[in-house]
Amino acid sequence: MLERQPYAHFYPDGFYAGVSEILVGDAAEKKFQEYRDAIEGYWQAVNDYRQAYAEYEQRMAEILEEVSQTGKTYTEDELPKPPEQPSPPIWYVTEATEAFIVNLPVGEYVIRTIDDQGRAVDGTEKKLKVFDKRRTGVGYQIIPESKWTRPVQSDDASQILYLEGTRTMYLKAFRESEYNQHDYLKMTSLEQPLAGAGATSAYMWVHETEVPNDTKVQILQGGKVVMEAEYKPYYVKQTPGYALGYEIVEFDPEADEFAGRRPSFEAVKLELEPGTYEIRAVDSSGRVLEGSVRDIRSVNVVPMWQLYVLSLLPLLVGLVVVVRRRRTRVVKSVTA
Amino acid sequence: MSKMGNRTNAIKVIARRDIKSTVNGLGIYVVASLAFLVAMLFVRSNLKGVTENGLMVMANPLNYPFFIAVIIGATYLALTSTMSVSRERDQGTLEVLFYGPIDSVAYVLAKFLEQLVTFLGLVIVYMVIFFVISILTNFGMDGSFLAMAGLSVLLAAAIVAFGLLLSTLCRSARTSVILLLVLLILFLAVDVVAGILNSMSAKDMSVTLVYIRVAVDMVNRGLQWISPFGYLNRGMLAIGLGSASLILGSIGASLLYTIVLLALAIRFLERRGVRK
Questions:
Q1: A201: nearest Cα among A226, A180, A178, A172
Q2: Is B63's Cβ below 8 Å from some Cβ in A?
Q3: Considering only CA atoms, which of A141, A176, A138, A125 is closest in space to residue A293?
Q4: ipTM at complex level
Q5: Which CATH class is domain A139-177+210-298?
Q6: Residue ranges of the domains in chain A?
Q7: What is the per-residue pLDDT across A161-215, written as a single tens digit (0 to 9) for each?
């Protein structure tokens, strides 16, 4: 028997970042109040900023007038500094509401609401299925330098990344879990009656959270670590003259060319020559993340005729066998 | 000599005679080459995918071409065993054989053993050629390939047993061959279509496709215990998950399926008799 409890969703990296936590009871109300205070603080800071900016503009106008009248020049240090624009809080908390919080082990249940007399309320009986992940691992989103808007995914550790020639790519690693497709889609799209229909025997990997930014990716060759790359911010720069139409450059927040801009993505950059490699993600303490190992292989572009000739080998052997058999028969019949 | 000894001897003699006949004929070599040519189309497609995109993620690019080659080889063997039983009945050879120390058990098991031994030889050739392809292309050949090769023997055993059952059930060679081909194509088509639909993103599926998926899923679930491919899928899944109990379970289920088919083939041969 469950009673209503206040709860709220807390999104530490913002509503659209996907990661959320459920806060229950006083913690939910406290966090929501904290969020409201942060928002109010932000608007106050915005007001202060506008006022400071108006004063700054007025002071600059006065300086300009003075310069034009007197010809007196100012050094950069003498000029007033513009006020810094405040940033809104990224995190978000929903308003605390009351609900029945269900936390059950894996299994199939029936739930219903009962009134204060203990009688079941009509139409409240529902089926509830609690399911678990089948496997967990680390999935990669691989952004090829040549097609940065079309990343490829490697979710299963049995998958191999095949390359042709020297390639540059950017890797983002995610913690992931594998769920039954039917159950997962039913849970996430309950409002759609056909969600997950016909997918009872299919499984899907779900990227849950991106690994922390201090995670590194090691590249191994012959079992030895040959390179270690870390997460860095990158910016996609449009370049009309460049063959791709863009160039991916490392984002430097201090550089003038990136003033007022944000990085396009954060990832681990890999530049690989043709060869056979193994990659793995390691945390800040150097521990290999489970399920993060992948093989990388460069393919050899062989002429197709070689493969087709190989296919005809059995036929050639067969012809030899048949011809030899016929010759043996002829020899036998001549001897007889 | 005891009855068991006679039976074992008869199985050996028939199986040896048929294996010799298969090895000395051109058919098995033509089929092996055909299987490789078809498999090469898939290898080519994978290779082209990598060269065109520059970068591609694939689980085991040689497993599916190998699977195709296995299907072609196993189907050919099932067809030859089906035809040979029907032909031997039509020509009266079966009747003559049964006047000797040969019974239904010995005959069916000999036919089964012959095809299984031939398939083992074929799988070894497949593995050698795929190993060469792996070296030429640098496509990976991991443990799952070897596991698939092992499981393919169980698949071939099931397909051959299925063919033998049909040959003892049907009145004519033509009927049994057509039925075998139709059923194998149906099983394979359902398996492939279900695989494709399961790999598609369910979020963006049209309503029509969702209904098709529901229908295929239902048929596929129904066929999982009838189709030999269902047993192979279970085995591959168990290997992918690395679960020893599931692997043993799938091998056991596959063996049991083959034994049941062979037992039914023996039973039907006894019931129908050996006269045409």
A1: A180
A2: no
A3: A138
A4: 0.83
A5: mainly beta
A6: 4-101, 139-177+210-298, 305-335
A7: 999 989 999 999 999 999 999 999 889 888 888 888 888 888 999 998 889 888 9
